Each structure stands twice: as C-alpha cells, then as structure tokens.
C-alpha cells in the first residue's frame, strides 16, 4: 500500500476537494441535461437544456410570449417545446385538461415556485400554491363574486362610467381624435380603486394616470423576472441584491407599490365606519366582501397581510386586463363595421328608451347579448392578457402529457396566446370572428377547453364575471351614445408584451354623438 503524505505535496497545486466536487457535479448536471435527461428529446434551443437565460432575455425584451410561439413555429407538429432546464410548454387541447384539469387524476399538478414571486405580504388567491389554502380562500370569497354581489358592485361601475362619459362628450363635441386606451386605463384604475380600496384615484377627472399604475406594472415585471431565475425562486428579495440598474428600478417600484397598498388599505379600514349605505351597512365593494369572508368549515378570516395581498392582486387583475380588453374590442369593432352595426341594433332594441346612452345599462340585460359577449371572448382568445404558460409542477413520479413522459418537479403549462390560435382548434385562427362562438358545426367543447383568457379549471379567474360586467357596460354605453371610428382606418395593430399583452402602438379614435 502506498501512502501519500499530502503535507509533502506542493499545496499550490492541490485542488480543494470541495471545488473538485463542485466542478464534477456541475459537469455531470450539464452532460445529463444536454444528452440524457428525458427532456432532452423535447425540441427547443440547446441553451434551454442548461439555462433559463433565453426566456429571461425574452422577458426583458418584452417578447416572452412571442418567443414561445416562435419555438412552436420552428418545430412544426411539435406538441411541446423546451423553454428551460426544468420547464416545458405544450400546445395541444389534451395538455390543457391534463395540466389544468381538476378532479380525480388531475390533482397532483401543483402551482410551480414561479408563483412565490407574486406572494407579496401574504398569499393571494392567485399566488397561493397550496391546493388546500386555495380551496379555503375560494370558499371564503366565492359569495363575493356571485350574481347578487355583481348587483351590489354595479353602482360603482355606473359612477365611474358617468365620469368617463363626461370626458368622452368633450372629445365628441370638439371632434378631436384621442387615445382611447389611455382613457380606458384611467377608468379601470379608478373603478378598481373603488372596488378594492374603497375610493377612486381621481385619475378620470384629472386626465392623468396615477403613479400607482406604473408601480403595478414594474412590480409585476420584477416578480416575473424573479420567478424565472433559480436564485430568485428561493427568495424574491434575493434578486434585489443584483446591482443592475434595471433590476434595482423594478425592486424599488415593488417596495413603493406594496407600501402604497398598505396605506390605502389602512385608510379603507379607517373610513369603513363612515362609508355606510342607507341601511346602515358598510359599502358593499369587493374589499368588504373579503373583509367579511369567513371559511364556512374552519371559521378562519383573512388577516391584514392577506387582505393587502388580495388588494394588490385585484388591482393588477382588474385594472390592467380590463382596459386592454376594452381597447381590443373597440379596435376590432371599428375594423368590422358589420358586427358593430349588429350589436348596435341589438342594443337599440333592448334599450329603446336609452338610445343616447345617457342611462346606466343593467348588466342583467347586457349578459343576454350573446354577440357582445362573443366579441369580448374573441378578443381574449386572440389577445389574452397573459400570453405565456401559467406553470404547474409535474407530480414526483412524473407524468405522461400528450404521449410525452415528463419527470417529476418540471414546470409545465400551455401558453394561452399559442393555444388560442391553434389551427386544429379554431378555423381561420388569426381572424377575429365572434360568430365562431355560435357556430353549431364547430367543436365547441374543444374551443372552450382551449380558451384560456380567464384560465382553466379550479384556478381560473374568480373575478371573471366582474370583469365581463364592467367591460360590456362600457362598450354598450359607448356604442349607444357615439359613432366610433378609427382615426386611421387602415391601422393594423400587433401585440407588444409588458407584464400583460397590449396593443403594439397607440391609436386614436374619433367619437360623434348619435342622434337619439
């Protein structure tokens, strides 16, 4: 036996055992991911086998959704593409049901660690990963989004709509072209302020956006970035240590945004006793429903930290997504005057005493106009607010999705913007055609399965009916009161990605008062 006296060796040439182990392990991981992992057979850029940097870069360049769609275009016929070392996007109807479906056989796909980046001061309905916690939260607040609650929320929408129409009348009187998306953003910001925080921001009357709206956008971008990076997944604050100006700007916005939400919610509690209805009860907005929410099984109520997280989540979900959907609806209705004319006629028949749009249009009637609702759904199909995949982790033992085995702990999902234009699901998928939703020859079940504008399964957006309520009220009121035209009739809008998908450029409309 040969005994080596380490002390006799040149210590400058000795590689520390820990470093040698780290290098060996790193090489092993790289080789495994590149050549031997079950995921290595899934198409995608080779870099995605070892790093998430391609997806991070696409996010930074505001083209993450487009990047994923391009991967499918580059691999015709593929039902899945690799987007990172442990992330795969699918593009097939069966994948939607397998990943997002609920019930027996589907309950092992949990939300991925990406969602942790959106848990701010507590878990919200959107960010919580625990199925048990989500089920409890949903039970607590379900009544707050019921048909009865919609009737209680409607006066707040009517109040903001009245202020909005006064501004629109000014543009109509002057015949002045203006950016309607800008004004939709002001409307939804004020409305969600009323519903989530107990007071509006006054942005409609001021004609200027609140700083809060910018903070929301930047904070969500920080969360997205953190959720994609390995070190960011372990702790959102870890990313804040990166000394890059871009990252520091987003982090400061997140901190300011959360502080703003805290102060606004505190004021909401302080003013609660003064904001009562003639019956002596507190104002019945969404936040009041959350405050009163109580789990029927355990009696648990939300604490202030959770309410603050829910308020922050509501502002993002309601304000950002509502305004962009209304903008797309106006654009497509102006580009399709036959559909617009038919909706106008239906509105005139339904509201013969309100041909100038001066009175509130009750949602209980509007929700019977199938063509108006189909126009909204079609916009969300082509331009879902969140275009990339909402990730779910495969169960520990792995799962077979669309015939492909995916190991356990891999983030999988279906990009809403990609599946929403799948030619196997939708005829002429790039065409805006609201009548497809009433086509008796179409496979309606498959179309609805692949419509992810509000999510799918037990985790789909609980505020869907609230969003549809104020969106349809806005569009109906505008169509009754004005003739709406694009300043540039030949305009062709594309999509640009911020946190959500928005029109690629500003566009102006011209309003003219209709004769009553």
From TrEMBL:
Domain of life the protein comes from: Eukaryota
Question: Sorted alphabetically, which Gene3D superfamilies does this protein's record hold?
Answer: Cytochrome P450
Which residue ranges does UniProt annotate as crossing the membrane?
Answer: 12-31, 311-333
Molecular function GO terms recorded:
heme binding; iron ion binding; monooxygenase activity; oxidoreductase activity, acting on paired donors, with incorporation or reduction of molecular oxygen
Which residues are involved in binding heme?
Answer: 461
Which keywords annotate this record? Answer: Heme, Iron, Membrane, Metal-binding, Monooxygenase, Oxidoreductase, Transmembrane, Transmembrane helix
Cofactor annotation: heme
Tell me its family.
Belongs to the cytochrome P450 family.
- The entry's protein name is Cytochrome P450
**Which organism is this protein's natural source?**
Hyaloscypha bicolor E
């Amino acid at each position: 036996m040969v005994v080596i006296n380490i002390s006799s060796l040149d210590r400058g040439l000795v590689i520390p055992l820990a470093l040698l182990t780290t290098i060996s392990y790193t090489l092993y991981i790289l080789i495994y991911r590149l050549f031997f992992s079950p995921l290595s057979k899934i198409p995608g850029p080779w870099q995605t086998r070892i790093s998430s940097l391609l997806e991070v870069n696409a996010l930074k360049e505001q083209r993450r959704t487009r990047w994923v769609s391009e991967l499918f275009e580059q691999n015709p016929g593929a039902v899945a593409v690799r987007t990172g070392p442990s992330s795969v996007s699918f593009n097939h109807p069966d994948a939607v049901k397998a990943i997002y479906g609920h019930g027996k056989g589907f309950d092992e796909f949990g939300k991925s660690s990406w969602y942790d980046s959106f848990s701010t001061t507590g878990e919200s309905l959107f960010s919580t990963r625990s199925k048990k916690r989500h089920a409890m939260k949903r039970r607590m607040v379900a009544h707050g989004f019921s048909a009865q609650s919609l009737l209680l929320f409607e006066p707040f929408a009517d109040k903001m709509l009245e202020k909005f129409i006064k501004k629109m009348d000014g543009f109509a009187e002057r015949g002045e072209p203006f950016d309607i998306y800008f004004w939709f953003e002001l409307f939804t910001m004020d409305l969600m302020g009323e519903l989530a925080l107990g007071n509006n921001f006054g942005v409609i009357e001021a004609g200027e956006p609140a700083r809060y709206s910018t903070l929301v956008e930047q904070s969500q971008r920080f969360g997205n970035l953190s959720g994609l990076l390995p070190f960011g997944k372990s702790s959102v604050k870890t990313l804040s240590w990166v000394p890059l100006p871009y990252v520091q700007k987003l982090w400061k916005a997140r901190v300011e945004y959360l502080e703003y939400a805290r102060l606004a919610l505190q004021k909401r509690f302080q003013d609660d006793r003064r904001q009562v209805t003639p019956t002596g009860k507190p104002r019945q907005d969404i936040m009041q429903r959350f405050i009163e929410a109580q789990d029927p099984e355990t009696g648990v109520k939300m604490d202030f930290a959770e309410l603050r997280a829910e308020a922050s989540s509501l502002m993002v979900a309601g304000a950002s997504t509502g305004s962009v959907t209304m903008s797309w609806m106006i654009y497509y209705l102006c580009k399709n005057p036959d559909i617009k004319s038919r909706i106008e006629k239906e509105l005139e028949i339904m509201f013969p005493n309100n041909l100038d749009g001066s009175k509130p249009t009750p949602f209980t009637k509007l929700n019977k106009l199938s063509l108006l609702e189909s126009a909204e759904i079609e916009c969300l199909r082509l331009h879902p607010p969140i275009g990339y995949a909402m990730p779910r982790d495969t169960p520990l033992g792995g799962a077979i999705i669309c015939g492909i085995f995916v190991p356990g702990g891999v983030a999988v999902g279906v990009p809403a913007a990609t599946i929403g234009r799948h030619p196997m699901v939708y005829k002429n998928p790039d065409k805006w055609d609201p009548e497809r939703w009433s086509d008796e020859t179409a496979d309606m079940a498959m179309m609805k399965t692949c419509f992810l504008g509000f999510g799918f399964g037990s985790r789909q957006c609980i505020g869907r009916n609230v969003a549809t309520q104020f969106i349809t009220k806005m569009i109906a009121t505008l169509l009754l009161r004005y003739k709406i035209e694009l300043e540039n009739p030949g305009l062709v809008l594309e999509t640009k990605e911020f946190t959500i998908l928005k029109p690629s450029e500003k566009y102006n409309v011209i309003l003219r008062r209709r004769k009553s």
